[in-house]
Design goal:
Layout (H helix, E strand, L loop, with lengths): L1 H10 L9 H33 L2 H27 L14 H29 L8 H28 L2 H28 L5 H28 L6 H12 L6 E9 L4 E10 L4 H19 L2 E9 L8 H12 L5 E9 L7 E9 L5 H18 L3 E9 L4
Parallel strand pairs: 2-3, 5-6
Antiparallel strand pairs: 1-2, 4-5
């Protein structure tokens, strides 16, 4: 969106520093003030037209639009609070205030939905005459278009800084866009003689508002209670950790999201015969790998893995790898082989494979999966992890 890019350049210094609290505040303030100005203007026009043509759906929609200005104020306050530095009572900062702002916005949405539901049901049971106005229809259509733009604007900013509050405000805008479109249809329906359509569509608008509010309450409350990360994030942590030679297994991965930063803790298993210095070096490499991959702060706990009877001898492992590589001419070699003993009936095999550095990531991924499958077929009961890296010649 060109307009979004221009507004960011004008109002947000160093927009790429999305983890900087001051930059996040600028993003939040930009979204909030644009929303406040546009919503205030639209709410005034809708309310005046609603009173003029005696439409409960239109006045309900005006109230919904006006409530968006209140939620934008909440967004602004939330971002200002979130940028406050750590203190004695809040050693992890105030970043979660953004999610608290989301919860407040969602609650306001739900309250607005209930209030307008009551008014719309009353109008459905006791229909009142509604003046048909072409101007009102035009205004509602333009309002729907404007609100959809604001929704996309807020979603864009929310994605840039990973803000649930901005995304919640975006859905507030989008529900208003749908509501405006429904009101336009309701006015046209009344013009065709369907007097109860105003109340019916008022109920539809109310249900939409209520659904959005409840859904946002659920999502923000789940986050504040410590929601588990998605499977993709966990897979990234495991992949980064397993890329370090010496790591045999990984378990007890935990995420702690504090809004402006995320902490990760995990346990790794290394060979019990490794020295303390070797284990410390492996843990440091894992922390660096995970931090670099996910932009988080990582703490690693090292567990020794007892030497148990291996499922396969080293010569058998090399033979299995060589046989599998015989079908992969694009692989130039392998190294850093780590073989653990049987744990819970399974062995752990990890090694690095070198390929041309100019190879596409997709192709490298395909080769890695194919090699893992072929080695597993030759070494039943073994779990295989492969780290792909560019050859020195490429």
């Amino acid at each position: 969106m060109r307009i979004t890019g221009r507004l960011i350049r004008w109002f947000v210094p160093h927009p790429e520093r999305t983890s900087d609290p001051e930059v996040r505040l600028r993003y939040g303030a930009l979204e909030a003030w644009v929303s406040i100005v546009v919503n205030t203007l639209m709410a005034g026009v809708k309310f005046a037209l609603g009173l003029w043509i005696n439409s409960v759906a239109l006045t309900a929609d005006a109230g919904h639009t006006l409530s968006d200005t209140l939620t934008s104020v909440v967004v602004l306050v939330g971002f200002r609070t979130a940028r406050r530095p750590v203190d004695e009572k809040h050693p992890h900062g105030h970043g979660r205030m953004e999610s608290i702002a989301t919860l407040i916005i969602a609650t306001l949405l739900a309250v607005v939905g209930i209030e307008f539901m009551v008014r719309s049901v009353e109008r459905l049971l006791k229909p009142m005459p509604v003046k048909v106005s072409v101007m009102a229809v035009v205004v509602m259509v333009l309002s729907a278009a404007a609100k959809e733009w604001m929704a996309r604007f807020s979603l864009d900013l929310g994605r840039r800084i990973r803000s649930s509050a901005l995304k919640a405000d975006a859905w507030h805008h989008r529900s208003d866009a749908v509501a405006s479109a429904l009101v336009a249809v309701a006015i046209l329906g009344v013009a065709l003689g369907f007097k109860r359509l105003d109340g019916i569509f008022g109920i539809a608008v109310s249900l939409l508002i209520l659904y959005t509010g409840v859904d946002l309450i659920r999502a923000s409350a789940s986050y504040l209670m410590g929601e588990s990360p998605d499977a993709e994030a966990l897979a990234e942590v495991r992949s980064a950790a397993q890329s370090v030679p010496g790591v045999v297994a990984i378990h007890d991965v935990e995420f702690h999201d504090y809004g402006q930063h995320r902490d990760v803790s995990l346990h790794i298993e290394v060979a019990g015969k490794a020295t303390l210095a070797e284990a410390h070096a492996i843990a440091s490499q894992v922390e660096e790998a995970v931090n670099r991959r996910l932009s988080v702060s990582t703490v690693v706990h090292v567990d020794p893995l007892d030497d148990l009877p291996p499922l396969a001898s080293e010569s058998q492992v090399h033979a299995a790898i060589d046989a599998a590589l015989g079908h992969e001419p694009e692989v130039t070699g392998y190294h850093a082989l780590t073989l653990s003993g049987a744990q819970a009936g399974k062995g752990q095999l990890h090694f690095h494979v070198t390929v041309d550095g100019r190879m596409e990531l997709r192709r490298s991924h395909e080769i890695s999966h194919r090699l893992s499958r072929q080695v597993c077929e030759r070494l039943p009961g073994c779990q295989v992890t492969i780290h792909m890296e560019p050859s020195r010649e490429s």
